[in-house]
Each structure stands twice: as C-alpha cells, then as structure tokens.
Amino acid sequence: MKSIILLATLIFGLASAQAQFAYEASAEHPFGLPNPEAPEQIKDYAPLIGECDCSSVRRKPDQSWDEPKKMLWRFKYILNGMAVQDDALHEGGTHGGSIRQFIADSTRWYVHYYSTNFPSTTLPAWEGNRNDSTMVLYKEQKAPNGMEGFYKITFSEMTEDGFKWSGDWVNPDESIVYPTWKIECIKRKEE
C-alpha cells in the first residue's frame, strides 16, 4: 500500500511540475511556447521563433563595409513562455544574445544584450515596440565625436520566412542615420 501511495505521489508531482512548466522548451516544442498569461506582445517575436541562417555585414574602422559573414540566429521562449531569448552564433567565433521582456507597466520591450566580445557586469538594454512587421529598439549612445544620439535596432520584414535587421547610429530627431551593421535572415524550415 505504501508503494502505491508513493507511486501516486510521484506521478502527481511529475504531472504537476510538467503543467507548471508547460511553455518551456520540450521535445515536442523545442523553442518553447508563448504563455497565455504573458502580455499579448509576447507574440511580437512569433515569426522569429526558431532558427535562421543569416548573412551579417558590419562597418569596418575605415568606414567601408566588411565581407558578409554567416551566422545562425536562434529565438526561443523562456521563463515558461513569459519572455524571449535569442542566441547569435557568428562565423569566426563571435557570439551574442539577448533576453527580451515586455513590461506591461511601461508598454515597452526591454532587450538586454550580452556578447563574447564585450563581457559586462551590467547588460546594456534597448527599449522599444513593434508596429506591423517592424520592431524598433533604442539605446542612448553618443557618436564617436561626442554628439548625443541613440543606437537604433530595427527588425523589419518579419515573416514566417525570415527577417531583416539593421543597427544604426541616429541623432535625437533621426535627421542623421549612420548604418553600422546589417543582417538578413532566412528561417530554417522544420522537417
């Protein structure tokens, strides 16, 4: 009788734990699922969830564009479907990623970035929102000459087939836009 009670307790505990973490990545859903208790905006990144093959090109110190580099960009739901995380694995060994949380009180996405190139005790954060198929995020950043401005990140043409991404330095009224990084991604199809 004790073994039946113990077995029932274990089964109930396992079922309860699975239900509690139902939106985490699993064999059935390798990139997790959006939690229905999350803000509606959790679905802003839905077209990007999964893996993409990308071409990344950055501006060199002499202001010319470098050769394109291959990149794998993976997006998934984390925190039991309440946030989004991405990992970018760049050809040549540079890697980075972000944790993306929508904070309902401020009605904005906050994106905390980390990188193997720039380890930090405090993660820089961009903030912004999605409109139609475009997500725009900003972080205050001075230009090399000291001019006030922002680093602006734009996800555009976000579809189930892929997206484009750009990083630009902009002045406060965006009358000056200086592109520094461009990425084009094609979504890997599930087999």
- Count of DSSP strands: 10
Query: Strands of the biggest beta sheet: in what spatial order?
Result: 1-2-3-4-5-6-7-8-9-10
Count of the domains: 1
What is the C-level CATH assignment? Mainly Beta
Give the H and E element order. HEEEEEEEEEE
Helix proportion of residues, in percent?
A: under 10%
Q: Report the CATH superfamily.
A: Calycin beta-barrel core domain
Distance between the termini: 47 Å
Can you tell me the CATH architecture?
A: Beta Barrel
Figure out the total of helices.
1
Please give the largest β-sheet. Answer: 10 strands, antiparallel, barrel
CA-based gyration radius: 20 Å
Overall shape: it is: globular
What proportion strand? over 45%
- Rounded mean pLDDT is 90
Contiguous uncertain segments of 5+ residues: 6-17
What does this structure look like?
It is a single chain. With 191 residues, the protein is mainly beta. Helices cover 10% and strands 46% of the residues. The chain has 1 helix and 10 strands; from the N terminus they run αββββββββββ. It has one helix at 2-20; strands at residues 50-58, 69-78, 83-90, 95-103, 108-115, 125-131, 134-140, 150-159, 162-170, 177-187. The longest helix is centred in the first third of the chain and has 19 residues, at 2-20.
